[in-house]
Amino acid sequence: MDLGITGKWALVGGASKGLGFGCAQALSREGVNVVLVARGAEALAQAVAALKADPQRPAAAEVLSVACDITTPEGRAQIFALRRDWDIVVTNAGGPPPGDFRDWDRDTWIQAVDANMLTPIELIKATVDGMAARGFGRIVNITSSSVKAPIDILGLSNGARSGLTGFVAGVARMQKLAAANVTINNLLPGAFDTDRLKATLAGAVKRTGQPLETIADSRRKAIPAQRFGQPPEFGATCAFLCSQHAGYITGQNVLIDGGAYPGTY
């Protein structure tokens, strides 16, 4: 299927690895000009090199990068100094650490909210009006399945990402955006084979004393698909939501978890 986004410009956060890289790769393969953003310059350079060497990427599709902390005003200024107008924005920030809510002070909460709620809102605010004026825009926020089914040790993520979800539910339905072919949706990943999952499993090993493979196997068996997700399949879903074909999908929370969520709605 031709997604109809060849030549568009996409900004992808947290794109040096994991789910962000999966999204950048999928968009790049569709002929989208992709700008990868991450804090780690070395990992970012490796990601850019991998995309440029990808035989499935059309030669005309550009791959650029900005090494910065997009959660800061200075970082966002670097992004918009490179390019003001974006057709596609994929927001993605590393999840806050797990733990006991009794141990979190105000500064910890503010940091989580700033990265996982306020930064995406700032990027939406800075880009949607230009998208509407041009008659095309796609914003995809990578959040978490914990928005749908909260996880007790991920209280920081539950709270901050739920705040973003509530905001998107309103702004995505603004007529001046939706009627101008500007969509805003959230992608909710379950357990994907990423560094984040590895860190979570390592934490469980430390807490329980059980072997890593025992814990990982137990986690896999709790998923109807009996496996962890892979970043490329996540990226493919992201690319579809960014496509010309997804113009009638907005304000939605798309859960990608191998069937782990047990609810009807």
TrEMBL record:
The species this protein was found in: Ramlibacter aquaticus
Secretion signal span: none
Superkingdom assignment: Bacteria
InterPro entries assigned to the protein according to its UniProt record, in alphabetical order: NAD(P)-bd_dom_sf (IPR036291), SDR (IPR050259), SDR_fam (IPR002347)
One Pfam family named in its UniProt record: adh_short_C2
Family in the record: Belongs to the short-chain dehydrogenases/reductases (SDR) family.
Name this protein carries in UniProt: SDR family oxidoreductase
